Structure formats: structure tokens, C-alpha cells
Amino acid sequence: MEQKHKEHSVLAEAFNNNEPRVNWHDETLWWVRQKRDKMAWTLPEWEELREAASQIKHNVLGNLHDYLLAFEKNAIANGAVVHWAADAAEHNRIVLQLLQQQGVKRIVKSKSMLTEECHLNPYLAEHGIEVVDTDLGERIVQLAKEPPSHIVLPCIHKKKEEIGDLFHEHLGTPAGNADPKFLTAAARLHLRKEFIQSRVAITGVNFAVAETGEMVVCTNEGNADMGAHLADVHIACMGIEKIIPERKHLGVFLRLLARSATGQPITTYSSHFRKPKAGQQVHIVLVDNGRSRQLGREDFRNSLKCIRCGACMNTCPVYRRSGGHSYHNAIAGPIGSILAPNLDMKDYADLPFASTLCGSCSNVCPVKIDIHQQLYKWRQVLTKEGHTKKTKAAGMHAMNIVLSKPGLYKTAGGVGRWVMRTFPAVVNNGMNPWYKQREMPEAPKQSFADWYKKNRQ
Amino acid sequence: MKVGLFIPCYIDQFYPQVGIATLSLLEKLGCEVVYPQGQTCCGQPMANSGFEHLTAGCNELFVDHFQGFDYIVAPSGSCVLHIKDHLHVDHKEVAATHIRQRIYELSEFLTDVLKVENLPARFPHKVGIHQSCHGQRGLGLSQMSELVAAPFSKPQQLLQMVEGLELIDLKRTDECCGFGGTFCVFEEAVSVKMGKDRIADHVNNGAEYITGNDVSCLMHLEGILRRQHSHIKVLHIAEILNAGIN
């Protein structure tokens, strides 16, 4: 099983070489989770809201074809140009073509996980176009030449001192200044110049309303608005699952999104883009990139309900202690682990195993995706498709033989415990990952079955 | 009331005292308990590793051993959840369905079926509860911190009946300990870190004992505690509920 990337467990182990940093990462994200809890508890109807959102998305996924066509029709009537992209490559080509038509070499882009998924930035760079990410966190990781480690908090893995160093190097701020307010002001000045100069702005889309053909983009920094309003051409890139039927449904989703994501009652900006202003072009790129395939996988279909709030990452005890980059995918954490194998089973075969199946992700999910159940189901699929190491498969087959035969189980147990008592070095050694940082359990002379036979039969 | 006692494989092999405590507790509460000899495992270690298709042997053995009981009880939330969710045998589906509907984790059996209201147990120590995820989130043994809903806890309800026992509060009431079945070896670094963090929460809040409904989690925590030469001990909830009952 050759993979392009190191596996999650290997990357996670490297992340854990610096324990104080793991503690800091864990505490930071746990703090976000607690903010989310506090906000959720302010709404007595929280669980009903989650159920409503889940049901609305259920309806969307069952009628996606019709809603998409309605959205296209209404968007065109509003004056937008609608493009359809079957996959990431087509999406990137469409965007490149639009940029080449404008003859631009440098553009601004607000947050869009879809463009991360499609690797748009490196593609455009190869064609001589530089993208300036305008979300502050995204700009920081961009300057560091790293991918985002979290879908809502892209630079959550970076300490403010590191950001100070980056800004000193790239934006000329004084060395050693890590004051968040000062650095934010420096970023604002830097980005303002980019906004004013950029003739094209790319944005993501949080919700696309079929009924009206409008798009809703949520940010805390107003950077999507700044880019889109100042540019001659606004390109909005969205996955086809971002559709909601009617505008009134925003009353459910906007209440859930920011509360789940950061513990805010609502994002600072929830901007509706409907008609282009005079002289402006609006292009909407609707991207499939595996979504129809996932829609056809019954067990995994409702992963497409995701509204990209990141709550499952903040609550995930594994994510908090392994860092977003250990998932080697645009979308990290539990939701990334059920979306990624749909894109490439071989490359992401490790991700559904990067979980204890604790179930906390499913409980915080604002659209009630059964994330941990899907992790379990992906494990079965990946194993059947042959994406398992031979040693693990051999171990499982051996386990099956022992556990299927009571006599063999009893003998193997007795012998095993005897070996552990008599020759502890057989198990207490470097080959045993359990023993690396944990003692093995004591091996008693008699099993429960032995005791029962002597004392009750 | 005839109760079939299911003792998961690792308890049978490494923690027979937990099986003994469970059996004697149920007997003292008036149940007729039978431990069917020849039982092995629920099949979860294979299923959670992606090899559910190899669990047919375990499933068939399980049905053969546990059909015909009024209830099946086990001192493990995780194994019970696995049976509830995944026990199927094509040609014995009626028996399998009966088992799936009638299997209980020990503490929910005590609170919901036996409706125990007091226990003559005594355990004068400070105790922290480790809420194992499969019992808590899977079987619903207690309210979960993620949900906006009224609090309850079946294990806590029982531990509060124990004389002298002082329950400590934790900073994170229901975070996973990192055991996770084969996760504990395939993701060793994160697994241990999660375990260490869980232990630190109990230590910082003055626990002398860590208890819970799953020996698997406790085995993992015990392994770390012993490596740390800690004085804190782990005990399965059955051992505490059975303490001092003669």
C-alpha cells in the first residue's frame, strides 16, 4: 500500500514530539468547543434546530438535481453566469480561463474550502497568476507556505510569536512584535492595498438559495465583501451540495453555523449576493468533484449535509492532539476523514482509522451527520477494497481463528498468560507499541472461566 | 429471572476479579445467573478494525451461548454496544434479535431492569468516573456534554448509593481516554497522550480511584498509571458496587 503522504499515525507521532505544544493546541481548540457549548445552551430549541437543519439538507440531497437547476435559472435571471465543473481540474480550468480573459496576474480570494480541495492556488501559480488569500488566517498560512490546518481557523496551529516572525519577514513589521492587535492592523493595511488593486475577486459560498439564485457568504472579517464589491469580476466557487431550497431556511442555518463554529451568535458578516452591480460580472462555478459519487453511496450520502463549521474538529480528542496537517487533506478532522476516501480511497485509507469512534463529532454536528458511524463503515469498505496492510490483515485472520474456537481461545489464553508471567520480556519490549509508554496488564493464573468452573460448577 | 453472564475476552483473561464482582453482585441482588462456558468474544476488535466480515464465527458462538436467557448482562458498555449494533446470524436471526434487544451493560441493568434503589456497599474513597464513550454516547448511560438536554447518569446514580464514596468533579466530564480498540497500538502516540490527559484531570481533582463501565479503557489508563508509578488505582464499577457486600 504505497501512499503519496505519510500516514496519519506517523504525522501524529511527530506532532506529539512536542508535548507542551500539543497541550496548547488541545486547550485552544477545547476553549472553542466550550464557547460553542455555551452558545448552544442559550437556545433551548438547540436540538430541534439541529434536527430541522438535518431534515432540510435531507430534502436537498434527495432533490439536488431540481434545486440545482432552479438555482441556475434564477442566478442567470439575476444576471450571473453559471458554469458547471465535473471535477477539480475542470473547475481550475474555468477559473483560469476567466482570469486570462481579464488579463490579470494577481487576484484576491476569500475563504473557500472548495478551492483548497481543488488545489486552485498552486494551479494558478503554475499559470503565472498569484492568489492573495484575504482571510487573515488563510493569509498567515499562505505566507508560511502551508495549507490550512482547520477549515474555520486555518492557522490555529500557529502561535502569535510565529505569526509575528512571519509578518516581520513578509510585511516588514518590527522584529519580535507579536501583539495580535498590532499584527491584525498590519495585515489590514497590507490586504487593503490588495483589495483596491485587484480587478477579480474569488469567494466561496456558504449557502446558495435555489428559490432566489442568491449566494450567502459568511465571514467575520468582511473580506469577501471587500473583494467582491471592489472587483470588476466576482467569481464564486461552490460545491453542488451548498444549495438550500428557500431563503427562509437561512434562519435555521445561520443560527447554527457560527454558534457551532466559534461560539458566536452569528458571523459578523452574512452577505447576500444576488444581482451584479452595474458593469460587474458575476460568475458562479458549480463543482461536483466526487459529490454525485458520494450521493450515490447510501451509507455516506449524508456527509454532504456538512456546512463546514468545524465543530467536529474542535471536539475531536484525536484532532486536538494530532493537528490538522496530520490528516494530509484539505479538510481535516472527523468530517475530512469521511469525505476524503470518496476522493481517493488509496490515498486516504488511513483517515477513517484516525479515530477512537468516541462519537463526540456526531453529537456536535449541527446537521446531525452520523460521522462516527460512517468512520466505522468506511473501515469496512476500505478493508474490502484491499487498502489494508498485509500484517494487519494477517493479525485479524489469526484473531478470528482463535476467537471462533472456544477450545483454542482457552488454550491460547492460558499459554499467553503463562508466557507473560514467566518470560515477561516476550511482550515487554520495543516491538510492542502498547509497552512503549504503558505497562501490560498483570496476567492472572486463572481466567474467569477457570474460576467459575471451580467455584460455581 | 434468568440472566446470562457475558464476560468479554480481555476481562476473562486479565481481569477475572471484575467478572467475579459482577457475578456476585447480580447474585446478591437476587438474579439467577449462568455463565455459559465456551463463550469467547463479541467480535468488536475485528469489526472496528474494518474486518466485520470476519466476525461470523464470533457471532454464531455468541448466539449459541446466549439464546434462551431473559437477559444478557456484561460489565462492558463497549462490547454490549457492539452486540446491539452488529450481532446478526442469517439462519439464527430470531435468536440474534432477541439477544440484541435483551443485552444490557451492568449499570443500566441495575438501574433500569432491577431498579436498584440502594446497595449495602461501602467504599470510603475519592472516586472519579471515567465515562467510556461507547457506554455513554452509544448506550446512553448518561447525558453527554455536547447535547442540550437534562443531566442524568446511571453509573453516578449507583455510585451515590455507596457509603463513604466521594465523587470528584472533572474539568472535562466525558472526554475519550484514547483506548479505541486497535487504535491504542496503531495510533500509539495520540492514544497515550489522550490517556495521560484523562489521568491528569483525575489527579488534579484529587481522585484516589478511577472507575468506569469499561475495563478496556481502565486497562489503558492503568497501564499509563503504572508506568508513571502513580498511587491512583483503577477499579471497574462492579468492584466498587460489590465492595463491602457480604
UniProtKB/TrEMBL annotation, chain A:
Residues 296-326 form the 4Fe-4S ferredoxin-type domain. Keywords: 4Fe-4S, Electron transport, Iron, Iron-sulfur, Metal-binding, Repeat, Transport. The keyword Ribosomal protein does not apply. It holds the Pfam family LUD_dom. It comes from the Bacteria. This is Lactate utilization protein.
From TrEMBL, chain B:
InterPro entries: Cys_rich_dom (IPR004017). It comes from the Bacteria. Residues 3-84, 127-221 form the Cysteine-rich domain. This is (Fe-S)-binding protein. It comes from Chitinophaga rhizophila.
